[in-house]
Here is the input.
Amino acid sequence: MNKDWRGVVIRRLLLLIGACLLVGLVTGHYAWALVVGLGAYLGWTLAQLLRLYQWLKEHQPDEPPPDGYGLWGEVFDSIYHLQRRDQRVRGRLQAVIDRVQESTAALKDAVVMLDSDGNLDWWNRAAETLLGLKTPQDSGQPVTNLIRHPRFKEYFEQGNYHEPLDLPSPVNDRLQLQFHITQYGNSEHLMLVRDVTRLYQLEQMRKDFVANVSHELRTPLTVIAGYLETLLDNVEDVNPRWTRALQQMSQQGKRMQNLLNDLLLLAKLEATDYPSDNQPVAVDLMLLQIKADAIALSGNRHHRITLEADHNYKLRGSEAELRSAFSNLVFNAVKYTPDEGEIRIRWWGDDSGAHLAVQDSGIGIEAKHVPRLTERFYRVDSSRNSSTGGTGLGLAIVKHVLIRHRGRLDISSVLNHGSTFTCNFPATQVARRN
Here is the structure.
């Protein structure tokens, strides 16, 4: 109510009271005159209020308000203008929503909106093609009921969406899809799904090429290495000028064999999502053997290698694959830690799962290199691999083994102050010792 109408109402009320007092003066009944006058005013006010209620309850869009007098007429008109303004705002918002829906409907990528419980709210036409969603019967259904791949269910329930997930389409196995999930608002989800079949086929061709070439090279390398070994075993019958050359050829041949073995192992790891064997592995006993091998590798460099392993925690998975990953981490620590340096190996468990940490006092790694350490053939310093005999595939193998065992690798390093490589496994992969 604005200031002018307040004054008008007060003046009219005072006039009504004055008229009632005048009637009371004439009749001699002041009280009854006031009661009748104020009662009539209250009745008229209630009648206007009932008209307002009836109009708000039954009015149709654009239906004008009832005629009113005085302040009530102003109230009717103000409410009517507010409704019209609200309709215009809603119309503009609906136009924006319609444009957004039209633009997303034209996308080749699937766009799916999910509520906080993972139920389907809205999706575009591409989602019907790529995921097989149907309108309207799938609305409100849990997304895990419609995309039934176990890896998708695990990915969605874990809530860690930093990395995308690649899976075949639930309606066409020949299509390879990439899922990106983003949380927004009140724990709601926006899921984007891209068709990456072409990229997947190119990547598969690359993997097949590397695996086939590696396999084909094993036989000639084995023959060459065998003859070199025979010549070195009978070095007294060979011209002394060839001795050093034969030794270098044998050394480089072994490096090539190690490289091929690592490439074939990577190809094997990438061939399936899960290890073929999934039995509880006694990690503490495995680490004892790896420690012994690390001491032998250290030799006269006199590294101080310590092991702390909780025997109560086993890890479900492939013992051969886990041994390969863990030994890679420990042997790398030996290779890149200066003489008489310290290497600490820890295996423990907690409520979040189980963890393996390999900490060294080595030369460390610059922060800019850390995100790329698990890439194939990535070298922080090309001289490192030539001096240590590495293939540049060790950490790539570690990464793929951990992925197959639902784990992740965390790396922290400070240049000239050492590094710590930590393997984290979820509780679902851990078996407690009875």
